[in-house]
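Problem: given the chain below (172 residues), write out its structure.
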Amino acid sequence: MRFLELECPPLSKILRTVAFVYPFIFDNIPLFYRLFFCFGEDCTWNDAIAGYFYHLFFALLTGFLFASHLPERLAPGRFDYIGHSHQLFHICAVVGTHFQLEAVLCDLHLRRDWLSTHAPASIFTHTFATLSTALLGNLVLIAFFTVTLLRSSVTTTILQSTLSEVERHKDK
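Solution.
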């Protein structure tokens, strides 16, 4: 499967959607926990909550625009240059990110006293260990995919040949 978009468009759409939905859900687990399960004096609802809800609204709107291809589906040809769903998708993503960052800053400002008494102390070694673990994980992934790519006979042929030689190899 070299060009997944051409060979199996529905699978391609599903994989691209999962590539955006999974990190969104993973990144927002603390927010979902706070909004849906955290009650009491440790989890105060403050002015930042509205910003989080705006963020979630724009995230859902972004996903809807990505999946539905509106408005160009309703009026083909009228939204080719301005108002295309892909453009609206990016605008909603940026606005949602803006609301998320504003809510985080507001939350940090309003909960500073509580966070300073309940959060673990920042230690350089913890920060360095986290950074090193992330870097090592990325290097392992890069090495794994590089080795896999170089071991593939088709890929090796493509990397070492001209396009006409690759086409002749496929025909055999």
